[in-house]
Amino acid sequence: MEKNNILKVIGAFIFVFGIFFLLLSITNIFNDIDFMDQYSNCIEVSKYQPEVLDICKENVSEGLGIAIRTNQVEFTTGQYLKIYIRQIINVLLAVLLIILGDFLYISSKRNKTETKKVKETKVKAIVKPTTKKKKVVRKKKK
Length: 142
Hints:
mainly alpha, 3 helices
């Protein structure tokens, strides 16, 4: 019974962690989109001045975790894919954690009810009386 309780606690912990991780992943998606929008705005405002452009590139490189070359102004397709696929993988990992936590929680609950049924049947088998009636033999008087 203690094993089922431990599985239940672990399953609940993983489930809650998965929910928080999903919320964080969704927030990061919007954060990355905001970084990309701000980079586009920064390029338009800079009017391609090298000093301002370098600051824009440095900020977006640190924020998104991608490298922008010195002669590059716009994002490449590979950089867009890297940004979006990383966030999609984070969301899918969070959903996987939620499913795993739910599975552990429910399976521990199912195991608990199955062990309870097994114990009830064992008790019923033990409680049933199996005594036989003794035959009384009467002796005839002579």
